[in-house]
Amino acid sequence: MTVALAPVLQQARLAATLAAIGPGARVLIYGGERPMAGADAATLALAEVPLADPPGLITGGKIVLVPADPAGVLIRCSGQASWTRIVAGGGQWLLDCDVGEQGDWQISADGLPGDVPQTQLYEGGTFILGTVTLA
Q1: Are 63 and 49 in contact (CB under 8 A)?
Q2: pLDDT (mean) for 16-28
Q3: Around Cβ 66, how many Cβ atoms within 10 Å?
Q4: Is residue 118 part of a domain?
Q5: Domain of 79?
Q6: Is the pLDDT assigned to residue 122 strictly greater than 80?
Q7: How far is CA 4 from the centre of its chain?
Q8: From CA 91, how far away is CA 88, in angstroms rounded?
């Protein structure tokens, strides 16, 4: 079954999603196996990226997330990034998804030839949230 939404409904859906993310939201990057949707993570987050207020903007039929600090955040511990979680300002779970060297949540290292995708993060390094869109 396919569903076609009118532009006004698409825009309303995006606006409601952005409002739910809201002020104080964070993107958490984890290693290891992703738990069931919304369940506690088995490990500490490798990096935690606070989002700006507002946390994103709607453009081209998508939400583009905006980090609070475009210069990045300190990587807390070394590990292979495998999934990410977005939590609202109060810590409520909103979204989990896989990350990797391919796909929508691609992790790449600045400074490598052609920004070679890689998922290995190193404690003490800087994690920069690039362009992240939600449709």
Answers
A1: no
A2: 95
A3: 16
A4: yes
A5: 7-134
A6: yes
A7: 26
A8: 5
